Amino acid sequence: MRSIDQELAEIRAAGLWRSLDGRGSMGASAEHGLLSFASNDYLGLALDPEIAEAFHEGLRRFGHGSASSRLICGTSHAHLKLEAELAQLKGREACLTFSSGHAAAMGTIPALVGPEDVVIVDKLSHACLIDAAKLSGATLRVFPHNHLEKLETILRNVRAKQGSTPRILVITESVFSMDGDTSPLPELIEIKDRYQAWLLVDEAHGFGIFGENGGGLCEEMNVQSRVDIQMGTLSKAAGLAGGFIAGSPSLIELLVNRARSFIYSTAPPPALAHAARYAIELIRSTKGTELRAALQKNIEIFTQGTDLPTNRTPIIPIVLGGNEIALTISAQLKEQGFLVPAIRYPTVPRNRARLRVSLSAMHSSESILQLRKALDPHLPARGVP
Length: 385
Ligand SMILES: Cc1ncc(COP(=O)(O)O)c(C=O)c1O
What we know:
Blueprint: H1 4-13, E1 35-36, H2 49-62, H3 70-74, H4 77-89, E2 94-98, H5 101-112, E3 118-122, H6 127-136, E4 139-143, H7 148-162, E5 168-173, H8 185-194, E6 198-202, H9 217-220, E7 229-233, E8 243-247, H10 249-258, H11 260-263, H12 270-284, H13 286-303, E9 315-321, H14 323-335, E10 338-339, E11 342-343, E12 353-358, H15 365-375
Parallel strand pairs: 1-10, 3-4, 3-5, 5-6, 6-7
Antiparallel strand pairs: 2-8, 7-8, 9-12, 11-12
The structure holds pyridoxal-5'-phosphate.
Pyridoxal-5'-phosphate binds next to helix 5.
């Protein structure tokens, strides 16, 4: 039997070692004096004093532990109000929250499809979407990233061979977590409608960033009512924690009755739900609009004069190829005072290791230009402006 230590040695030898270093990092800050370009705190809300105050108020009013699963006695008014506000922001009739985005995927996908059905995922979808699809027992098909013709071919073949009975669930992200590009939602919707398939869009990295109210790319592209299952998380732009699904009332009722990660898990702290309501209010307020504008300005500052992709998203990958080169440059940047993580397989495909720069509305233009200068030799660049 292969020992755990042998397996650990193999992980090290492949340059895929990971460990925990306690370097917490929100907005643009990090412990140990590093300037962070690593967090998903795109609007800087993880340290927002008004949300912190709402958390305190939530503790006083609703308590810190929910003491039960949602269906037993763990549902407080704070959870229900948060769900009502999220549904509104997502332009849908109903919403259900989970303890994390990961739990939302793991509960929702197997509740919707089973062994008789088919799931078709974009190749670059997040691990939780792929794991949930596998857990469902449905036939799993993968289409090349954003490749609409290939997606349509798979859909056509499934319907031609299996008729109209199987449920087909197409899964994509609005903003891809490691590539920072977006999906062509209106075109995807036209295709999935043609084959009577459902579409799940994970807005983990689009929520709070896009749309007039910060509802995400579905809001910006005016397709909220046409996406069957809108998934999101409060752990990124909203600066807190907790996943959610928005959609039709029947979808949400089905999840309440069938989503195992929802049913068999203690409800998230009600104080957290209360704080999240404030985060949602803030995201849709004038301050939210200003933070989105500040973020867009920072994205422009970082990308101008380079051949880096300009997708208007705060995730900017600098693809280097091998694990070692990505780790070496990340370590060099750390010595210069910047926290920029190296992302390796299996988070990204083999030989596509990269630095993942993530920008926040909290970064100053000076700090962004300093990072640009430090990164200059590695950028597909036309030079620092
Ligand atoms: C695209 C995507 N979906 C889902 C998740 C999971 O969300 P959470 O961190 O709330 O579990 C993440 C976060 O890592 C993600 O990047």
